[in-house]
């Protein structure tokens, strides 16, 4: 190898290492921000570390029924079915489940915004610039109002946060 190849390889490795370090820092920031969001909502912060359970807790925070987890996880099932048996019908089912999952996630993120008194613009920020807006939500002055932005009343205690559809 000549000197130019070594320099290019060193530059490439430097870029890769920098990318990895930045990715790890953003990941840690997002975990801590979500931890604070969960804590502000009266839920255990450690729940963000446990897959699937963290989503169940998020559904409770936004006031959606637990069965909504299946609206998000269905895409995995249809992806496996499509991989095992590719075809037009399974492709259509996979595409439809992906669209359902996207809309479900948007509704949940909007519910999170409303739960902290934020508007649709903040929802857009959470979706497209989450690495900025989740820390704003977690570390900022936003207060948890209630599931979906509806404060608990005497008729609906704070622990019955799941709305029925």
Notes on the protein architecture:
- This protein is mainly α and 165 residues long.
- It has one domain (3-149).
- Helix content is 67%, strand content 0%.
- The protein is built from 6 helices and no strands.
- The protein has helices spanning 3-40, 53-62, 69-84, 88-115, 120-128, 130-139.
- It is flat.
- The chain starts with a helix and ends in a 26-residue tail after the last helix.
Keyphrases for this structure?
165 residues; mainly alpha; disordered C terminus
Per-chain topology:
Elements: H1 3-40, H2 53-62, H3 69-84, H4 88-115, H5 120-128, H6 130-139
Helix pairs in contact: 1-6, 2-4, 3-4, 4-5, 5-6
In a few lines, what is going on in this structure?
Helices cover 67% and strands 0% of the residues. It has 6 helices and no strands.
């Amino acid at each position: 190898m000549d000197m130019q190849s070594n320099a290019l390889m060193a530059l490439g490795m430097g870029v890769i290492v920098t990318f990895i370090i930045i990715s790890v820092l953003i990941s840690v920031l997002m975990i801590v921000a979500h931890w604070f969001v969960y804590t502000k909502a009266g839920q255990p912060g450690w729940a963000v570390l446990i897959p699937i359970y963290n989503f169940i807790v998020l559904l409770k925070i936004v006031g959606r029924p637990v069965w909504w987890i299946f609206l998000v996880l269905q895409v995995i099932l249809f992806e496996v079915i499509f991989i095992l048996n590719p075809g037009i019908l399974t492709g259509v089912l996979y595409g439809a489940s992906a669209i359902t999952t996207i809309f479900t996630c948007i509704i949940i993120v909007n519910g999170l915004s409303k739960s902290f008194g934020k508007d649709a613009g903040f929802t857009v920020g959470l979706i497209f610039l989450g690495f900025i807006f989740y820390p704003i939500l977690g570390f900022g002055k936003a207060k948890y109002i209630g599931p979906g932005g509806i404060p608990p009343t005497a008729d609906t205690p704070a622990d019955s946060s799941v709305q029925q559809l």
